[in-house]
């Protein structure tokens, strides 16, 4: 059996479960990216205000 990058073995999930796991990963990454974008935006705003 081969293991993918998330540590899930091929054949452990059926197609529906696999798609659900992929969607959850995409949503998690999206939330992380949004948080980083907000932090960058706040940093730039503070830089403009205090410079």
Give me the secondary-structure topology.
Layout: H1 15-50
Overview in brief:
This protein has 51 residues and is an all-alpha fold.
Uncertain spans: none
- Rg, Å, rounded: 18 Å
Tell me the number of strands: 0
Structural class: mainly alpha
Number of helices: 1
User: In percent, how much strand structure appears in the residues?
Assistant: under 5%
Q: Estimate the mean pLDDT confidence.
A: 81
Tell me the helix content.
over 70%
| Major β-sheet annotation | none
- The helix-strand sequence is H
**CA(first)-CA(last) distance:** 57 Å
**Shape, please?**
rod-shaped
Explain what you see:
The protein is mainly α. The chain has a domain at 24-50. It is 71% helix and 0% strand. The protein contains 1 helix and no strands. The radius of gyration is 18 Å and the shape is rod-shaped. The termini are far apart.
Give structural attributes:
1 helix; 51 residues; mainly alpha
């Amino acid at each position: 059996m081969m293991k993918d990058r998330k540590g899930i073995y091929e054949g452990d999930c059926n197609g529906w479960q696999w798609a659900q796991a992929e969607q959850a990963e995409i949503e998690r990454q999206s939330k992380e990216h949004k948080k980083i974008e907000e932090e960058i935006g706040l940093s730039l705003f503070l830089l403009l205000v205090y410079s």
